[in-house]
Amino acid sequence: MKQKISMLMDGELNNEDAEALLGKIKQSPEVKQSWQHYHLIADVLRQPEYLSKDLSAAFFQRLREEPTVLAPQGKRPDKTGLFAMSAVASIMAMVFLAWISASIDTRPGSQMAKQGAMVASEASTLANENNMNDYLLAHHEFSPGVDVRGAASYIRTVAMKPEMAGK
Amino acid sequence: MNNMLRSSSVLYLCLFLFATDTLADPFSQDDLLWLKKMVNAAHRSNYSGTFMYQSGNYVETSRLTHLVEGKNEMERLESLDGEKSEVIRRNGQIWCYQGDGKVMVAKRDGARMFPALLPEQFMLLQENYKIRRGDEDRVAGYAVQSMILVPRDRMRYSHRMWVHVDSGLLLKADVQDERDHVIEQYAFTQLNLGGGIDRKWVAQYLPEDKVEIGKAGVEEPSTPLPNESGWVVYALPPGFKKITEVTRYLHGKKSPVTHLAYSDGMAGISVFIEKHVEHSGAKKGLRSSGLIQVYTKILGDNLLTVIGEVPPRTVMQVAESVRNGRGN
């Protein structure tokens, strides 16, 4: 099932299978959750600053709260009509924007800068963690790169000092 | 039917392309010799030098000394700026001294120490990376040959290495992601090869004399025991093979930790599974330090930590597909 979801996201599933899977996503909350989970993972991988947090629940909540106007409305002047965007539409626009920014691979420069920023800030958190060195030493025991790099591999263990933080 | 036929022929075409891609450029004998020379030199040469390590904004200078005496291999890595810290290796045993007096001891798997790079490892390496020999260059005053391990997919990084032409010693290395962005690098800026190396520290720092295991501040190396815990990585990224599975005690942990180790010939991935302790302060999610990515999550009653010299997507894929085959 998970493989199929991943294939559907990549556009590799044929029409029949895709429809069957979409049906399942609608019916089974479990499958739906994996579907959202996969999108979240994909988003994180692409661009960590915009996550497709599951907006659907909040969206439908707002939609339910939207008053249903049954009375016939008089024709409004065009000018106000332009600005009378309903809450639904603005949420739609926001979701769309978030989706656009999450799915479009922006220019490599900015992408790299963002990734760089993420790595830098994350490195500082890792440096401050207790016990992380124990895991790293254990990891190095079997890591093949150590054969080639020798003790230089342990620079990371040594380098994990508080000075790394806040840079 | 037509549709099916088409999709299956596409599949075959892909398989065919994949197969030819893998088989078309195996490592040449020459490349293999270079790699062997490199690994051999890393373990069999005497040298001492200063090298610079850089990852993101972080730069550190260290001194690295490597000595071989008979069958014994000794290595010392000493930080030259900031807080004093040291790593000493004597064959498979490793001691980490940090500024605050804390000493940590670890062991390298003895069987794999030397002769390193077994034929299986070469096979794995060839399956996952293409090797390209680059230009001749100069590092720390020595003539070097550059070699690039280009990954065959996006699940691993690209490794560039500058190897001393005469000895085969690795003098400079960097790691790049798929956008050719350098994630971390290190290079010798000064190096003495062969004779004339200060051996005083060997006597001075003979770890066995200096460190009594069990004494306050010294952590005993945990002896990893082979284990079959039932934990499985279902969606193991292609090209990775399981090396071993052990149970060990990490410092300060009351319960044992299951450690699964995987390799693609160059990069390693470790999966640690332990009982989750509430309020233990364990950080969750993805963190990085240079080449290394760490991903931590809670899985039922367990805390899962995945560490690897691989891109974030690879550690995440591993972490998201860990299950216990015994119905956990």
Description:
The complex is a heterodimer of chains A (167) and B (328). Chain A has 167 residues and is an all-alpha fold. Chain A has 3 domains: 1-54, Arc Repressor Mutant, subunit A; 55-69 and 77-105, no CATH class; 109-164, no CATH class. Chain A contains 10 helices and no strands. Chain A has helices spanning 2-9, 15-27, 29-46, 56-65, 78-83, 87-103, 108-127, 132-142, 145-149, 155-159. In chain A, helix 1 packs across helix 3 (29-46) and helix 2 (15-27) packs across helix 3 (29-46). The two termini of chain A are 43 Å apart. Mean pLDDT of chain A is 64; it is low at 77-85, 100-125 and 159-167. With 328 residues, chain B is an alpha+beta fold. Chain B folds into 2 domains: 29-210, Lipoprotein localisation LolA/LolB/LppX (outer membrane lipoprotein receptor (LolB), chain A), CATH 2.50.20.10; 225-324, Phosphorylase Kinase, domain 1 (2-Layer Sandwich). Chain B contains 6 helices and 20 strands. Chain B has an 11-stranded antiparallel β-sheet. A 7-stranded antiparallel β-sheet of chain B has the order 12-14-15-16-19-18-17, with helices on one face. In chain B, strand 3 and strand 4 (86-90) form a beta hairpin. The chains are: A mainly alpha (167), B alpha+beta (328). Chains A and B meet through helix 3, helix 7, helix 8, helix 9 and helix 10 of A and helix 1, helix 2, strand 1, strand 2 and strand 3 of B.
